[in-house]
Design brief:
31 strands, alpha+beta, Pdz3 Domain, seven-stranded antiparallel beta sheet, about 500 residues
């Protein structure tokens, strides 16, 4: 089980399937009983038991003359460690770690779905059916980003199975059933409603969870969430909890999103996600105001990969992508999810805002190569300072980029802008985590190359009545956009 901290609560990844409510046009009342539905669905829900071998570092015994035999006799690993030498070499000490989760059969031939975190790094995966039968499972494919895994068991007879439904037809307030294996108790059913949709819990780039109050606990991870038609509309994956137990806030991966990844795992053994070759930021209310936008919608492009699809299509850093294939980008994760689920090689149409004007572009989706590279943060030492006059505004002191600063920050020769030489932590700039060594490239979509030009640009924006300015900065070779509010005293 994984745990994440957010708002002083732990996001606990649990093995459970959430049930998302019916596809009805009108709301359905609560049934007199869930018994008939439960009896139908229980046989297709399984317990997932995993075993992992963990190597233990051997602790060296204290070397006291004449006491070696004494310490060996009382070594905690003594009996287990007997005969550990083979061919004169130490065998590593090991122990077995077991974990439990849930899953469900989607194909009578033995295809089973669960969470990736349930089976990740396991040496052996065993499946126990509701009727007590047990099978050894093979991992067909797994995806850590959406936290899904596809398993296969060999069977001489068809297994009971369930089908996916369309989660988009389920609404907040609909009834759902969750079935899983909490605390190793075996098939357990809980009922609740869909509490919310499109939840982003910062667990990955494709968060768009269904929230439910159906009871979900440790061991429920990977279990299904059903609507009242008995269709799987979610895969129970996480909960908010200060203690690790259920408090009525659980999260499930939507079925439509899950099916796309599951189909790829079954076909290729891995995912084939689309990419357009950009990094982007959410358009906040402050950003929208600084640009004169009416709504805080879209994805602001912070950088473009050279030679990537976006670069070839003419997308520039600072563009705001507002539509993808005719769909308006409203939520933070709309764009990455839509791009990831688009067929490799497909031509797609985008609409971007560039300096307030709409621009239509077409690009070809490329395949995502999932690798990342980290860089040490470049820093300036006090010895790199030169006697240059700076200008202070919004709590930041701006100076020209000197040769020493360029060398210390590892800036390319073609990087033009102004250097932030100091930041007051209790200022508007400090509140936005701007810091010494950042380089300002643009102010509200206008390039600045001198301190005087930057001060003039800020003064003009304030005179126009803007409450914020949008800074395009470069830090550690990465480009980002930061919105800074005008101080009331400025």
């Amino acid at each position: 089980m994984r745990e994440l901290n957010k708002l002083f609560m732990a996001v606990v990844i649990v093995a459970t399937t959430m049930v998302i409510s019916p596809v009805a046009a009108l709301a359905k009342g609560a049934p007199d009983s869930f018994a008939d539905l439960a009896e139908k669905l229980l046989p297709a829900v399984v317990n997932v038991n995993t075993t992992q071998t963990i190597k233990i570092e051997r602790r060296s015994m204290p070397k006291i003359p004449g006491m070696e035999d004494f310490f060996k006799r009382f070594d905690r690993e003594g009996e287990r460690d007997q005969g550990r030498k083979k061919n004169g070499e130490d065998r590593p000490l090991t122990r077995k770690r077991q974990s439990l989760g849930s899953g469900f059969v989607i194909d009578p031939s033995g295809i089973i779905i669960t969470n990736n975190h349930v089976i990740d790094k396991a040496d052996e995966v065993m499946i126990k059916m509701h009727d007590g039968r047990e099978f050894k499972a093979t991992v067909i494919g797994k995806d850590s980003k959406l936290d899904l895994a596809v398993l296969k068991v060999e069977t001489d007879e068809p297994l009971p199975f369930v089908k996916f439904g369309d989660d988009a037809k389920s609404r907040v307030g609909d009834w759902v059933l969750a079935i899983g294996n909490p605390y190793s108790l075996g098939g357990t059913i809980t009922a609740g409603i869909i509490s919310a949709r499109n939840r982003d819990i910062n667990s990955g780039p494709y968060d768009k969870y269904i929230q439910t109050d159906a009871s979900i606990n440790r061991g429920n991870s990977g279990g299904p969430m059903f609507n009242m038609d008995g269709e799987v509309i979610g895969i129970n994956t996480a909960i908010f909890s200060p203690s690790g137990g259920n408090i009525g806030i659980g999260f499930a991966i939507p079925s439509n999103q899950a099916q796309h990844v599951i189909n790829q795992l079954r076909k290729y053994g891995h995912t084939k996600r689309g990419r357009i070759g950009i990094s982007f930021q959410q358009v906040t209310d402050d950003t929208a105001e600084s640009l004169g936008m009416k709504n805080s919608q879209g994805a602001m492009v912070s950088s473009v990969v050279d030679g990537g699809p976006a670069d070839k299509a003419g997308i520039l850093a600072g563009d705001i992508i507002i539509e993808f294939e005719g769909r308006v980008i409203e939520e933070r994760n709309d764009l990455p999810i839509w791009v990831a689920n688009t067929e490799i090689g497909k031509k797609v149409k985008l609409v971007v805002l560039r300096k307030g004007k709409r621009k239509k572009l077409t690009l070809v989706i490329d395949e995502l190569e999932e690798n990342e590279a980290d860089e040490d943060e470049p820093a300036m030492s006090d010895d790199d300072d030169e006697d240059t006059e700076g200008q202070e505004v919004l709590g930041m002191t701006m100076e020209p980029i000197t040769d020493k600063a360029r060398k210390a920050l590892k800036l390319e020769d073609d990087v033009k802008g102004v250097l932030i030489a100091a930041v007051d932590r209790n200022s508007p700039a400090g509140e936005k985590a701007l810091r010494r060594g950042d380089v300002i490239l643009e102010i509200t979509q206008e390039t600045v190359t001198t301190v005087e030009g930057a001060m003039d640009r800020i003064a003009k924006l304030k005179k126009k009545g803007r409450k914020n300015i949008l800074l395009k900065i470069i830090r550690r070779g990465n480009v980002a956009f930061v919105t800074v509010k005008f101080d009331e005293d400025e």
